[in-house]
Model the fold of this input.
Amino acid sequence: MTTPTIELKPSASPLSDAERAAILANPGFGRHFTDHMVVIKWTEGRGWHDGQLVPYAPLSLDPATMVLHYAQEIFEGLKAYRQPDGTVATFRPEKNAQRFQASARRLGMPELPVETFIEACDALVKQDEAWVPAHGGEESLYLRPFMIATEVGLGVKPANEYLFLVIASPAGAYFPGGVKPVSIWVSEDHVRAVPGGMGDAKTGGNYAASLLAQAEAAEQGCAQVCYLDAVERKWVEELGGMNLYFVYGNKIVTPTLTGSILEGVTRDSLLQVARDLGYEAEEGRVSVDQWQTDSANGTLTEVFACGTAAVITPVGTVKRTGAEWTQGAGEPGEVTVKLRQALLDIQRGTAEDQHGWMHKLG
Done:
């Protein structure tokens, strides 16, 4: 199957330098978008075609468009960073492309070739390079590739038409105010995903399923919700949008991928970064009771969450029905801070990229 070349049709009236600078001074997260987007169509019998870079604009969808009824939708998230020499590089785009393919398989959607995924991201970043924040801080350009079913009809089946898009948004800190521990509510009534379900696919339905429990977490005074496994309701899986890590001194453990946990790119990267720094890093199972007990007796020294948007965020207060505890001293732990800095240094080009993770744009 041939892959489409992306035709450039840039905007004749992009945002002015002054307007863009004002946005970049305080971008927030996911509030502002760059001047362009990439769109590629897929049609049964024809495959991928009509790849274009066009001005950012609303989509026009028929009310019977299948994504609106049967939720065939997947997405990714990755970042572009300004490097010390002024160039731009994205972090492990091939990993996101491969996960995008896995998500597509799970939802019965066509798989976008890895090289086309990367080409689409590159085209948008090159066109809107002025939107990539300056080197030095934690700001970046967040890329959101996604795909939706666009066939019109109400028959329950995989669609025969799809639209792949990439949009971009300048991103500041996901949790404003610096690296401060977040509070966690352990949900023992709701689950995020079940074995054999879609937990390991990056699809909007998984996030919709998390919103009720997230609201309950807010009612408990917590910023994030933690999910347990769906079968025994005892094993820690992940947060609504981030993976978890447990630090036992020099040993670092993240929940084993069970098919109901999203295989995070940051999660995977930190396993390697931790080993590079001399820590023992592994996958394993941690129960919520073990979490509570080990925090109380001091053997569990730190807990942190990780994801593309938030990078690494320490966990402070943890609440569950009938119990509450503070993780460690309630401040960012030494290992958490060290790992966070090491990963950011690679992404920002101030440390050696010994694993070839940074994809430099020509």
